[in-house]
Design brief:
Largest sheet: 2 strands, antiparallel
Oligomer: single chain
Shape: elongated
Strand content: 5-15%
Structural class: alpha+beta
Radius of gyration: 23 Å
Number of domains: 2
Length: about 110
């Protein structure tokens, strides 16, 4: 929308190669004409998001392969470390953490 409240259309010219329009590897949107020939992401945000996604997937795969388990000291629920809860988790839910950190505890 413009300053006057009118809807503005934004025309985007997409880069193409012999297979058709070049698409971003992260979000699937077409790359701009000004994108380098070696570009695979539409923006730094998309590149970072894709990197984080791949990093989390790799960590989960490694966690399942190792099959390390942990259990909650309060209720006894067990989980695969790094998949359902972070590797640093001690309790199964925030409820138990809050109870243990309150003055006087339970």
């Amino acid at each position: 929308m413009g300053r006057d409240g009118a809807v503005r259309l934004r025309l985007v010219a997409a880069a193409e190669d012999q297979d058709g329009p070049r698409l971003c590897r992260g979000c699937g949107e077409p790359l701009m004409l000004s994108a380098k020939a070696t570009a695979v992401f539409c923006s730094a945000v998309c590149r970072s998001r894709s990197w984080r996604r791949m990093r989390r997937a790799k960590a989960r795969t490694e966690a399942v392969t190792v099959a390390a388990t942990a259990s909650c000291p309060e209720c006894g629920v067990s989980w695969t470390v790094g998949v359902e809860h972070p590797a640093s988790a001690t309790y199964c839910s925030p409820r138990w953490r809050r109870r243990r950190t309150r003055p006087g505890g339970v």
